Amino acid sequence: MATLHTRASARLMMAPSVIVLFAWMIVPLAMTLYFSFQRYNLLSPDEHGWTGLLNYTYFLTDPAFGDALTNTLLLVGGVLAITVVGGLCLALMLDQPFWGRGIVRLLVIAPFFVMPTVSALVWKNMLMNPVYGVFAWIARTLGVEPIDWLADVPLLSIILIVAWQWLPFATLILLTALQSLDTEQQEAAEMDGAGVVGRFIHLVLPHLARPITVVILIETIFLLGVFAEILVTTGGGPGTATTNIVYLVYSQALLQFDVGGASAGGIVAVVLANIVAVFLIRLIGKNLDR
Amino acid sequence: MGSIHLAKVTKSFGELTVIPSLDLVVEDGEFVVFVGPSGCGKSTLLRLIAGLEDVSSGQILIDGADVTRNAPAQRGLAMVFQSYALYPHMSVYKNIAFPLRMAGIDRTVIDAKVRGAAKALNLTDYLDRRPGQLSGGQRQRVAIGRAIVREPEAFLFDEPLSNLDAALRVAMRLEISELHHQLKTTMIYVTHDQVEAMTMADKIVVLNRGRIEQVGSPLDLYRKPRNRFVAGFIGSPKMNLIDGAEAARHGAAAIGVRPEHLALSLDGGVWKGTVRVSEHLGSDTFLHVDVEGVGVLTVRAGGEFPVHYGDHVWLTPAPDKLHRFNEHGEAL
Ligand SMILES: Nc1ncnc2c1ncn2[C@@H]1O[C@H](COP(=O)(O)OP(=O)(O)OP(=O)(O)O)[C@@H](O)[C@H]1O
Ligand SMILES: [Mg+2]
């Protein structure tokens, strides 16, 4: 198959799509990179020119940057923790035979199909609202002072909303993985005297190591860019309590009209994402090549 | 030590009755083989004994104690599965040590036992490998190692050799027999390979549709099959079963004669036939001979027998080796 000739023609055939994809990626990146070294504010469009690293200095020394970085990591970490643990529990439950399992599976998967803005609005107005939200009603029914979620614990609220959206994804992946667990292995372990907990620790968890890794990697990619949920609920506030890096870039570009600063922020976000990616691959990537 | 007693055991999956009432006694130290065609309930029976399935009714006694409601781990049995069911993410060492770790045994004791078992099974060089890095025969030995370290009351094997190639199967068969002689532990072994059954068993249990057709030593079953089913199942190649006029001549609804009990001659005999396919193995020659009014018979000739497609031969059944069956298929 792999003669020199076929390989050369294969390259030729692939070239158009590779070139288009490459251009698709490299042009915006190059433009962002270019703008990040420019002084370019839409409020004073005539003052532009090279500024060196000034945009970066401003972005990185902005007191909001530290908060945004912490918030980003807390958001990603919190959602990951909830979805992996919760997804594992749900998957284990849905793997058991019980009456109405088909319906329950469908319901569990449903949140994934709701658009982020819609689900964030539903959470904001129907569930977390301190006056007429469901949580407030429950609290009052129990005789407790209701919490004003988005004002008092804004980051936790965002984490809950985003986790709710990603829980189905984790559940689905882990459920399919559970279903591929060999039953004879389970039975062998049962005969070997392993109880439910023993089987979970020694068989199920190692079996799930790889799918859990996949869940973590894929979710991280998307969670670094959470935006819509923040925009429609807290608008990054109160203060910078729920501003993550992406939202900070947005507020630079579209609220302060600073294209140069926003581009620098974008590049910083790309670098950060890559750092996280390298870190993750180092940490758990070995689960993937077995 | 390890006697197993099944009393009126039945098993149904919903509407489907896989095992209608069945009684069986396995003596301590015996090597018992369950044989039968595919789907006859061999695995199900083994899993009932193991406790991996609940009986629908009846009792299972081990050493006289009723274990019908006991969990698998409490029955003191070890099972070797057809797929080996090794734990893929654990090394060979950890696989073998697993039942001991679950029993909370001291680490040094575990180490000694695991190394002992590994030595007995020639696995010492592979202790650090994962199951995925082993050959089929080695995996099989790991599965056996995991079973023997527990020192169970009895071993249960469910077609342990069916994933191996022919040569390895013969070698492993010997190893398991050897192991049985060393350990003297009760073993129950499921197979549908009747050569395995004949060579390994102290006692063969022939199953058909969940019922026991006959229980006995291999040679008992070979010499005195109780019915047509057992007659056709035990022995290789299969016994020739003849009905019709030829059987009526012997006062039976059907007669059976094994390929090795048909004398071959080029000059004369009882039945004259035409040779169809002939299989020359060197040590044996198997001829498929078409006899008019009788049908195609398989004949075994020791050594070489130079006939070919279309040749005429004479067959003579050994009179004292003839099996006669009535219209219900029972031996007369
Ligand atoms: N969990 C189950 N639910 C329903 N029917 C089952 C179940 N397990 C087995 N059976 C049925 O019980 C019968 C006996 O199955 P079993 O696995 O014991 O056969 P076997 O003798 O081991 O066959 P083989 O030689 O092919 O392994 C089969 O008809 C099978 O379809
Ligand atoms: Mg079976």
Which short descriptors sum up this protein?
heterodimer; A: 290 residues; mainly alpha; MetI-like fold; two-stranded antiparallel ribbon; 13 helices; B: 332 residues; alpha+beta; Rossmann fold; OB fold (Dihydrolipoamide Acetyltransferase, E2P); 2 domains; 6-stranded mixed beta sheet; 5-stranded antiparallel beta sheet; 9 helices; 18 strands; 32% strand; globular; binds adenosine-5'-triphosphate; binds magnesium ion
Description:
- Chain A is mostly helical and 290 residues long.
- Chain A contains 13 helices and two strands, in the order αββαααααααααααα.
- Chain A has a single domain, classed as MetI-like fold.
- Helices cover 73% and strands 1% of the residues of chain A.
- A two-stranded antiparallel sheet of chain A has the order 1-2.
- Chain B folds into two domains: 180 residues, P-loop containing nucleotide triphosphate hydrolases (Rossmann fold); 88 residues, OB fold (Dihydrolipoamide Acetyltransferase, E2P) (Beta Barrel).
- In chain B, the strands form four sheets. A six-stranded mixed beta sheet of chain B has the order 6-7-8-3-9-10, with helices on both faces. Chain B has a five-stranded antiparallel beta sheet with strand order 13-17-14-15-16, with no helix packed on it. In chain B, strands 2-1-4-5 form a four-stranded antiparallel beta sheet, covered by helices on one side.
- The two termini of chain B are 39 Å apart.
- Chains A and B meet through helix 9 and helix 10 of A and strand 6 and helix 2 of B.
- The structure holds adenosine-5'-triphosphate (ATP) and magnesium ion.
- The site of adenosine-5'-triphosphate has 12 residues of chain B, from strand 2 and helix 1.
- The site of magnesium ion (MG) has 3 residues of chain B, from helix 1.
